[in-house]
Amino acid sequence: MLLLAWRSLRTNPTRYLLTGLAVALGVGFYVATTVLTATVDRSISGSVDDFFSGTDAAVRSTDVIDTGFIDLRSPLEPELVDEVAAVDGVDAVAPSLTGYAALIGSDGKVVNDSSNVIVWTDNEVLNGYRLVEGRAPTTVTEVLVDTDALDDGELVVGDEVRILPAQSAVFTVVGSMEVPGGGGLQGQSGLALTFDGVTTLFGNDDITTILVAADEGVSPSELVTRLDDSLSGPVEAVTGQTLSDELKEIINQFVSIISIFLTAFAAVALFVALFVIYNTFSITVTQRLKEMALLRAIGASSRQVLRNVLVESIAIGIIASLIGLAVGVALGAVLLRVFEAIGFPLGGDSLTIVPANLAVGFVIGVVVTIVSAYLPARRGAAVPPIEALRDSTIEVVGASRLRTRVGAGLIVVGVVLAAGGATNLRLPSAIAGIAALFGGIVLAAPAIAPSLARLLGRPVERARGIVGEIASENAARNPKRTATTALALMIGVTLVTAATVIASSFRESIRGDLDRALSADLVIEAGSGFQGGIEPDLTDRIAELPAVDGLTPVRTVNGQIDGDIATVNGVFADTVGSLVDMNVLRGDLQDLSQLGVALSESEADDLRVDLGDPLTLQMPAATVELTVVAIYERDDVVGNVLVDTATTDAGTTQPLDALVLVGTDDPAAATAAIEDLVASDPTAEVKTARQYADDQAGQLNTLLNLLYGLLALSVLIALIGVTNTMSLSIHERTRELGLMRAVGMTGPQLRSAIRYESSLVALVGSIGGIVLGVFFGWLTYRATRDTFPVFDIPWTILAVIAVVGVLAGVVAGWRPAARASRLNVLEAISH
């Protein structure tokens, strides 16, 4: 039996070629995800460990705000540096300050998204960088730049550069540096200045951490103990390894999100591949029923026949999975370059391949192939020996009534549960409903697919006559086969459609909310990446422009309110009401200037407070007692917690305005004047309120395009399934096709009929996916309607998806159609 299985694979390699490709792509995507994650983990770990390799201990504040992602700590007084240096066992100290800085390249654009700024120290033990060229900075306006940033910014030693947010200061590049082992912290430009240079850049001398090197013979743990014993106040000492581990954990949280995201799409691709494999073995087993019956007639047991088919699936799984491993490694390298191209450089110069991850990918590919082939194999093993006496095989193609009824019932139950769960925010109910719905569709699909294929085929019948009728009938003749093929494509189209509907609904909700809330005429956006902005003194200068009638910044600081994490926005209390329509329900925004706080209605409900109630706001640099002075409804522009800028300025070491709202009677004159003032900041943009709303809504397009790219793999695998099904069914219908040619059907007519048939199967899957995707989009809307109140169906895009589905079907049927038209008529009739 093993020999028979091997001969079957060797003599019919094309039968399983596309099936193996589907498995290889699915495995490849999974392996690519693991390669990406391992490479990033190695790169980050090595870079951070190298950076802190000489740090034995670190001193920092114990006043901490845990945001769930990164700890925000209160700053240390500069005098503490000398106290730490005087502790017994301390060899050297280096103060560290944290703030926003962005290097401007020779082209006037920001180099990368942010800069990792350090105070340069000549102590090589504590210095995370090593000098490569030039000399160390000695004055307030001299800077060292890491080698990668110099290349990216097309800069050389001796150039004069600007570093945001400093508008007027010019720094001279006196040298280049790099982290030992190669590369800096991923995605950041390394800058090193004197202590006075850093304080000038950040606008403060508040120290976040003091790095400490131990005397010879003093261990890191012993040094930590001595520091804790000698220092008083809200400070603590930790080992350098602890500091390194914490930073790596923060970065790895982001990497893990990417890994989970990509793994989910790998799972989708493998799930789609499961349908393709199942369909392939279902067809091939049916075509070989007579052969299997003959084996049974000459003494083979059903178990041996089952083993014969499973051996074939194992061989396919092994070969395809091995190919998938190679594809995955190559795809991992491509993904690293893609992330680097879109501004998220995650890895180093070489890939990290973990053998255990490759082994898991290999096993997944083989297991998916075996599981997919098991049911068709069982059906083939159950064939009675009497079937060997038939002239041709007979396949039961009708849809089971019981199966259809159960499927219809599950669809109804699934819709009710999913809709109820989404409406009432009951996640278990929604998940159970979606599972029941999908299970019902799988069961009922053999009854739905042929009817839908005939319905969609009527226009083809009217346009192409007998050719269209043959295509329509062939698409509906085998319900199970058509349903399984269409289901594979439906999964991908469902996810594409759901993403499209959700993104469109979110976009329209954001646009509508901002249109209603913004009373300002102009909006100034500034900052790089997720941080930064213009300095408050520049905001004040903009306010003094003759064409500006009034403005308010939206100055953000992260903190805690009575122990709960909060994003707090500082505004000008006397102007914010005229520039933002927040629909104040109770209180007066003018009172913000009297240590007041305004809360959105939802935030007030969560905190269980009302007008006049006291709140404690803890920020990194200060803790203040506030009084609730206003409750408002719309939080789209100003967020959930609103205070005066005097409050946020006291609570942060580097106040910056990423958003400034401007009122004016002459937008053109105001725009020109503002652009002149912010001309030295390439991140600052002046927009109309409408442009700002459109841009905020349009930010979802980048994510949507990424989703399309990732989902394209599952759609490709599904189309491989369409091609495979058509190719195998043509082999099955060789005699039939020969008879049609014999009675007068031309080669072009035959090719057209098969292409139309393939298109109808693809259209069935596309239509089903669009309907299901719109439903999933509606479920998301019901669950998020309080935040995103608009449900929008982009009909034009959905029509494009349907057309692409038809065209993809034409492409998938092209090769099978060409093959069918080349059949020798006499040989086909005698088949």
Short summary:
The chain has 831 residues and is an alpha+beta fold. 57% of the residues lie in helices and 15% in strands. It has 25 helices and 25 strands.
Key phrases:
alpha+beta; 6-stranded mixed beta barrel; 25 helices; globular
How many helices in DSSP terms?
A: 25
Outline type = globular
Rg, nearest Å: 33 Å
Q: Fraction of residues in helices?
A: 55-70%
How would you state the average pLDDT, rounded? 85
Main sheet overview: 6 strands, mixed
Fraction in beta strands: 15-25%
Helix/strand/pairing category: alpha+beta
- How many strand units? 25
**N-end to C-end Cα span:** 26 Å
Write the layout of secondary structure elements.
Blueprint: H1 2-11, H2 13-51, E1 57-61, E2 64-66, E3 71-73, H3 80-85, E4 90-96, E5 102-103, E6 114-119, E7 130-134, E8 142-146, H4 147-152, E9 160-161, E10 163-164, E11 171-178, E12 188-193, H5 195-202, E13 209-214, H6 220-230, E14 235-239, H7 240-287, H8 289-297, H9 302-341, H10 355-381, H11 401-423, H12 427-464, H13 466-477, H14 479-517, E15 522-525, H15 536-543, E16 550-553, E17 555-561, E18 564-571, H16 576-579, E19 584-587, E20 596-600, H17 601-607, E21 614-619, E22 622-632, E23 641-644, H18 645-651, E24 659-663, H19 667-677, E25 685-688, H20 689-698, H21 700-732, H22 734-742, H23 747-784, H24 795-821, H25 825-829
Parallel strand pairs: 6-12, 8-11, 18-23, 20-22
Antiparallel strand pairs: 1-13, 1-14, 2-3, 4-13, 5-10, 7-11, 8-12, 9-11, 15-24, 15-25, 16-24, 17-18, 17-21, 19-22, 20-23, 21-22
Helix pairs in contact: 1-9, 2-7, 2-9, 2-10, 2-21, 7-10, 7-14, 7-21, 9-10, 11-12, 11-23, 12-13, 12-14, 12-23, 13-23, 14-20, 14-21, 14-23, 21-23, 21-24, 23-24
